[in-house]
Each structure stands twice: as structure tokens, then as C-alpha cells.
Amino acid sequence: MQRSVKRGLITAAAWAVLSTTAATAADTLTLAGLGGKVQDDLTATLFKPSAEKIGAELRTESHDGIAAVRVQVQSGAPGWDVAHLGAEDCAIGAAEGLFEPIDYSVVNRDGIPEGVRAKNWIATNTYSVVLAWRTDKYGDNPPKDWKDFWNVEKFPGRRALSVYPQEMMEIALLGDGVERDKVYPLDTKRSLAALEKIKPSVSVWWTSGAQSAQLLKDGEVDMEAIWGSRIAGVIADGAPVKFTYQDGVIGFGCVAILKGSKNVAAAQKLVANIVSPEMQARIPTMMGYYGPSNKKAFEATQFSADILAQSNASPENAAKQVTMQPTWWSENIQNVQEDFKNLIVQ
Asked: Which of 7, 130, 199, 258 could form an S-S bond across to 78 if both were Cys, CB 3.0 to 4.6 Å?
């Protein structure tokens, strides 16, 4: 009789385990990102393998920024569980109460710098804005930093900058002689004055990464500020182009769990895996010119010298650059955006 009861208890326990496992495996998480190649690459590098690791099915959708996330949350029943955004948008969304708290008893934040993680979001990857130039224009005497970009007498030529104030305001200060460790908090008046000085030599204010790459590839400009990730294709296509990480600006992508998600517990596990050193260590080899947000990724894997030279976030390259401060931008973007736009259109 006791043996029968015991067997029954074991069977019940086994069924409980199987049910729990099945429920976990049946979790379907929806992650919405910024679309395009970067979302495809991040899905293959981080998002999908992280979902597989927790036994969840991952659906991906795309969005066009924080406004779309806002609409999802305000509906009261968001169709997305996790959003991938630029870090400044994560900071804006957190201030508006759009996100669930990150459970840091599940998500290990070790290795993620303090300025790019918060109560409601955490950085997932890095990118850089860099100085690139045509070698057929400048030969053996290329511009080395933003001070050279601003030196139109010594380095004449057509230039291109972005229509987005983020990163452009930082490089304007660097071009005006501000030291990297003094860039923040941004002196917006000095930055705008520096941009006003260079404006006559700016042939194009680009609006997309694809446009910036085409400008350089086709020789429509001689030097420009460009996302480092866009350099890869230009160089691979054989264009006479080089770039430097010197005085680049490191920005961040991030993830946040939408307020009202029905899958918060599973989403926490997904985020935990995305930012783990082991998963982050996939970025330098799978996503050239991007880098991990978790600095411990460079301890988790031994990378070749070529990979380290290419990754924007390798210790040597990161030391040459300014790190964007998402919270500063979330608090100041409204004040800066209008002045920056007016400068461009005048």
C-alpha cells in the first residue's frame, strides 16, 4: 500500500515537473526592434539564441521608435513583451513609466556600466559614430580626429554630418577642442556655435545609415561622421575609404520589458541571457564594428587581434572614445532638437 502511494506521489511529481517544463517551453515572447539589418543581426547573435536557452519561442516585429512603444503600452494590452531601442529612448520611456522594472535578482548586471543600465532598462550592444574619409582625396595625410574635420584650411573638402543631434553635438565639441572627459554635460551653446562654423563645408546632412554609406562610397563627400557599422560594406565593396575610432562616440542599444506584458517572468530570463558575458561575446565575431555592452564579454572569450582591432568596444578602442550618456539626452533632447534643426535649415 505504501509502495503504491509512494509510486503515485512520484508519478504526480513527475507530471508536475513535465507540466512546468512544458509551460516554460510553450512561452512565446515577442520582441520588437528597430528593423533592418541591425535587427536581423541582433536576432541571430543575441535574441534568438537567448530565447532558445530558456526554452521559449521568439517572435520578432519592428517599430519606428519610442512613439510606437508608447502606443503599445497605452493600449493596456501590449502585443510586444520586449523592445529594443536606442538607449536614450529607453531612458525616455523609463521616465514615462512605459517599462516593467528589471529584476536584478534574475538579470546579472555585472560588467554593464552604471550609466547604461537603470531600474527599467539595460544596454545590449554598442555602436560608434566615427570619422571616415576618402583615401583618394587625402592620401598619406588624412584627418586624424574631429579637430582635423573642423580644420577646413588644412583639410579642404566636402563634408557630411547627420540630421540627428545625438552624437553630432558631441563631435562638435571635440572638434572645437574640448577634451573627451569634459564633453558631458554638453555645453550646447558651444556645440551649436561649432556646428555653425563648419556648416558652410557640410555638403550633405544625411538622414539614414544607407545614405551615409552611399555618399562615401560614391565619392560625393570626402569625409564624414558615420556609424561604424556602415563602414563595413563600403570597405568590402572596395571603395578607397578608411576610418578611425579616435574620438569616436560610443552609443548603446538597449532592451526594456513593456508595462503590461503578460510574460514578464520569461522576459526577465530572456534579458538575463541577452546581457550575459557568454552571449555578449558573440557580438565581436558575428557583428563587425559593433561591440558588447557587457565588458566581461572580453574576459569570457579570447579574441584574435584582428577582431579586437575591429570591435568598437574592445578595451583599446573604447579608451579612445566618448561614451554617450543616455540620461542626459532623455532630459535635454526636447530643448536641443529645435535649435539643432533650425541650424541645419537656415
From this structure: 258
Give the domain CATH number at 192: 3.40.190.10
Closest-CA residue to 323 (of 177, 119, 186): 186
Q: What is the pLDDT of residues 55-101, one digit of tens each?
A: 999 999 999 999 999 999 999 999 999 999 999 999 999 999 999 99
Q: In terms of DSSP bridges, do strands 241-257 and 122-134 run parallel, antiparallel, or are they unpaired?
A: antiparallel
Q: Is pLDDT at 15 greater than 50 in this prediction?
A: no
| Burial class of residue 230 in the structure, from the number of CB atoms within 10 Å of its CB (0-12 exposed, 13-18 middle, 19+ buried) | buried
**Residue 6 in domain:** no
- The answer to the question of residue 121 being in a domain is yes
The parent domain of residue 203 ranges over 128-249+322-345
- If asked whether residues 225 and 189 sit together in one domain, one would say yes
Closest Cα partner for 245 from 292, 185, 311, 201? 311
Kindly report, residue by residue over 235-252, the tens digit of the pLDDT.
999 999 999 999 999 999
Q: How would residue 13 be classed by pLDDT, with cut points 50, 70 and 90?
A: very low
300 shares its domain with 339 = no
Query: 225 with 160: CB under 8 angstroms?
Result: yes
Domains identified in the chain, total number: 2
Q: Kindly report the number of other CB atoms within 10 A of residue 34's CB atom.
A: 17
Q: Which of 132, 196, 184 is nearest to 327 (CA)?
A: 184
The answer to the question of residue 93 being in a domain is: yes
- Domain identity same for 221 and 135: yes
CB 326 within 8 A of CB 116: yes
pLDDT band at 346 (very low <50, low <70, confident <90, very high): confident
